[in-house]
Amino acid sequence: MSVATGRLAAGADRALAALEPELIRWRREIHAHPEPGFEEHATAELMAARLGGLGLAVRTGIAGTGVIADLDGALPGPRVLLRAELDALPVRETTGLEFAADGPAGHLCGHDAHLAALAGVAGVLAERCEALPGSVRFCLQPAEELLAGAAPMVAAGVLDGVGMALGAHVLSGVPYGTVSANPGTVLAGADFFRLVVIGGAGHAGTPGQFSDAILAAAHVMTALQSAAARETPMGEALVVAIGSVRAGTAANAAPEDAVLLGNLRWFDPALGEYARRRVAEVAAGVAGALGCSTRLEWTGHAPVLANDAALAATAEAAIGAAGLATVVHAPPLSASDDFAEFSTRVPGVFLGVGCGTGASAPHHHPMFAIDERAVLLTARVECRVLLALLGTA
Fold first, then answer.
1. 302 within 8 A of 147, measured Cβ to Cβ
2. Where is the Peptidase M20 dimerisation domain (predicted)?
């Protein structure tokens, strides 16, 4: 590492450390005003104003609410994309925190921390652009929780001219001070679906006069679990999960339909394709046997997320050399992230940053909370790895 390079990396790191109170303030402001996928208008506006105020070239309205901002260094080099997610979950928060959201949505996965970290990185690098080689494309993606935001951003051209992609995610199941930088598979592939089981409305006391959509939906759910358990080859992993069941409004009235929202998780794409086919076949067959029909819509998709081995090694070396955290190689998780839409098209690395408090609720739980020191750690890790990918550290 040259003297100039070392000064750039060390100076950026010191500047981030000084910004920690501001990073936490940004995180809390975003946390208190969550917006679900494709509805992140205020969050996108806030981030666009922050990045635009740094002098970056900002584009808004990409894939609905997406934002990109380009920071061009004064020296030649590659362009690296850094992604953070704009959206929250449609789940009510019950943490009781002073800055907790008061409404039907909540930042219960850590996207607020990612946004604050990215804003910090953008700020310190913008101040040092005269010494920066290449360029950074800051990408604020909508609808990650729906697995529906990255693909349309790719279609809109956000990867044009990009040579590498970097993402990071706080992990409540990993203690603060630990970062995972896996070479190879990190997260499962996934498909989200909306399944409508259609029967006939009627009086609940006269079951022989209509087909019962709720009963058929219950049998469909059981049959899907049975199919996953009995048809998945030994040694393979497949999850079929139903996260929402909506039907009816009264105890004595049968509804015309029942709506199931569910998802599949898989590591083998061939198994994922097989599972998608079987969801359709099992649902139609079981519901049909009970006098009902089905309507199936696939609403979201993410490929398996795998790190480029060389980039993962570069990230691990940069984090270790700076003494930022203990770097581990963790087993792949059955969670998913459509960052994979970027990293299947350009070499990518996706890092897990420990934010566990010792008694942390899992991601997507109403009581999910983080060790706020992880906001600064995420920013420091992203900045060091960005500089390493740009060839400066």
1. yes
2. 189-268
The reply to whether 41 and 79 lie within a common domain is yes
Count other C-beta atoms under 10 Å from residue 98's C-beta.
7
CA atoms within 13 A on the CB side of 238: 25
Within this chain, do residues 277 and 208 fall inside the same structural domain, yes or no? yes
**At residue 169, what are phi and psi to the nearest 5 degrees?**
-140, 130
pLDDT band at 359 (very low <50, low <70, confident <90, very high): confident
CATH of the domain at 282: 3.30.70.360
Element (H, E) at 328: strand 326-328
Residues 78 and 221 in one domain: no
Phi and psi at residue 246, in whole multiples of 5°? -130, 125
CA proximity to 97, closest of 333, 354, 286, 370: 370
State the Cα–Cα distance between residues 314 and 310, nearest whole angstrom. 6
Provide the residue type at 308 as one letter.
D
Average pLDDT in the chain: 96
Say if residue 376 is in the same domain as residue 228. no
Residue 50 and residue 161 share a domain: yes
Range of the domain at 197: 191-301
Entry pTM: 0.96
Please indicate whether residue 51 or residue 360 has the higher confidence score (pLDDT): 51
- Annotated binding-site residue numbers for Mn(2+): 109, 111, 145, 169, 364
Contact 339, 83 (CB under 8 A): yes
Give me 378's structure tokens.
């995420």
Q: 218 and 342 in one domain?
A: no
Query: Is pLDDT at 393 greater than 70 in this prediction?
Result: no
> Is residue 282 within 8 Å of residue 224, measured between CB atoms?
yes
The CATH number of whichever domain residue 149 belongs to comes to 3.40.630.10
Domain end among 274, 301, 328: 301
CB 92 within 8 Å of CB 368: no
Read off the pLDDT of residues 269-296 as tens digits, 9 standing for 90 and up: 999 999 999 999 999 999 999 999 999 9
